[in-house]
Amino acid sequence: MKAPDFLASHASHVEAALSSMLKTRQCVVADVLLDAMSYSLLAGGKRVRPGLLLESYRACGGNEVQRVMPAALAIECIHTYSLIHDDLPCMDDDDLRRGNPTCHKKFDEATAILAADALQALAFELVADMDVDSDLRCKLLHSLALASGCQGMVGGQVLDMQAEHDAASGKHVELLQVERIHLHKTGALLHWCCEAGALLAAADEKQLDACSRYGKAVGLLFQVADDILDVTASSDVLGKSAGKDAEQLKATYVSILGLQRSRELADEMRDIALDACQPLGDEGVQLKALAHYILERGQ
Amino acid sequence: MKAPDFLASHASHVEAALSSMLKTRQCVVADVLLDAMSYSLLAGGKRVRPGLLLESYRACGGNEVQRVMPAALAIECIHTYSLIHDDLPCMDDDDLRRGNPTCHKKFDEATAILAADALQALAFELVADMDVDSDLRCKLLHSLALASGCQGMVGGQVLDMQAEHDAASGKHVELLQVERIHLHKTGALLHWCCEAGALLAAADEKQLDACSRYGKAVGLLFQVADDILDVTASSDVLGKSAGKDAEQLKATYVSILGLQRSRELADEMRDIALDACQPLGDEGVQLKALAHYILERGQ
């Protein structure tokens, strides 16, 4: 399934904003560091996270895209740093990412680790410097730190590693465990995007609640679809080695529930996401399309 | 030289606050992650950075230590995360830190990398959640991100790696290059501590300028003293392998200037730091003592 036009449009604004943001940092102390950060940050991708933030913002009535763009770039910085560390030899040991050499293959391990560290700092720098009310900035910075740290994404990554060890030692991994991994590993940031978009648009309670529920459903949907994609798509489509999850004994929805039941679960999650959009009325149409797309890219 | 009593007193408050802060995060998703974060965060040390922040705060008339404590913990989280990544096999490859196994030796590389990532997020979480005016919080978060990211500490680490490569390939490393490394690698955070302490105390312009100048001088003093310590102290005193800089072909003040000239440079930096304290009057006495201590622990 082709990405919806509005997602591609958000993505092209995000690409342009990322490039110009990186240019303003060329006075940076070490060129190779900025090169490595840019290499990974500008490696393409559908920019789903910034798209969710910008579209939630728009759906709640926001119309100053350039003003909220730094938050969209920040989430991409966090996501990119996590991919760089994830790809390292001591973690997933991946040589390819979106069809290109991973950061530590293109540069070296030390540079990759430091580029990721700098991207994390850059995310907080971008939000702290936004042209929005300082109370709101603090709120976003606080929730971004929670969503990306030990109680969010990083916590989920450790759970994921533990489940892999469990699976490797023949221990059965439960569905609840897999859900807990993804609620943290991918769900927390995806949820942050939707909530942050609503907050930046000064959404009313009804809109905020809608975006928050939508974000939670999409968070799980995204991962179920990803797991399905890993077993149904070719390496060409993925831009990385297909079947890698099974090879690494990753506990996935598919490995636990089977393909058929995983597809049913994904449909349920999509329906929850669609339902959450109802209070947004006509403005929620594109978020609905995004939920369809997130699911169907994986089938 | 023994640490001044007031530094030990700040350190004991910091230790207690770190412990209780970590306890409130025990609902964290993965125990081993919190264990690894705590292991490195509570590994002792003189807590010079929190000490600088708390003492700058006090010297500028601040008297609500518990209110500013999260900023002191935050700087220790940033410092600790940088040490964990620095110690990794692909970086300095250190097995010992303060006489104990480094984080990746005690746990494993993947856990160490993620614990450090979570500590960086925790630093921003702590400041974002402080009970101080949100404008000030944003200002501190922004300057902390700058001081720790590609234009600060991480930038300096990359410069350091480059100088090592230069030295290994027989290229002469200049004094200016070494200064540039340390202005970023250690100086930026030390400077942040002093400036943040002053800002949190609502310092007037004269006090803020004094703390800022003091922080810059102490930033360099700290590193010159460290380089001197590496060649003059035993491994016992260091809690890590002495002479490691020379072994790793690190470009240090001592390797470029020699021991005698490095000591003279350290004396000059100390004098600049002492002079910067003059506008603080009697309240600056302990910051002066801290400058003496930072230098003399290294001789």
Based on DSSP secondary structure assignment, what is the total number of beta strands of chain A? Answer: 2
CATH C-level class of chain A: Mainly Alpha
Could you tell me the radius of gyration of chain A in angstroms?
A: 18 Å
Q: Element order, helices and strands of chain A?
A: HHHHEEHHHHHHHHHH
Q: Structural class of the secondary elements of chain A?
A: mainly alpha
Strand order of the largest sheet of chain A: 1-2
Structural descriptors:
homodimer, 299 residues, mainly alpha, Farnesyl Diphosphate Synthase, 2 strands, globular
Plain-language structure description:
Two copies of one chain form a homodimer. Chain A is globular, with a radius of gyration of 18 Å. In chain A, strand 1 (96-97) and strand 2 (100-101) form a beta hairpin. Chain A has helices at residues 5-23, 31-41, 48-59, 65-87, 103-106, 109-128, 134-148, 153-168, 175-200, 205-232, 235-238, 244-247, 253-276, 285-296; strands at residues 96-97, 100-101. The longest helix of chain A is centred in the C-terminal third of the chain and has 28 residues, at 205-232. Chain A has a single domain (5-296), classed as Farnesyl Diphosphate Synthase (Orthogonal Bundle), CATH 1.10.600.10. The model of chain A has no long low-confidence stretch (mean pLDDT 92). Chain A has a two-stranded antiparallel ribbon with strand order 1-2. Helices cover 73% and strands 1% of the residues of chain A. With 299 residues, chain A is an all-alpha fold. In chain A, helix 4 runs antiparallel to helix 9 and helix 9 crosses helix 10 (205-232). Chains A and B meet through helix 2, helix 4, helix 6, helix 7 and helix 8 of A and helix 2, helix 4, helix 6, helix 7 and helix 8 of B.
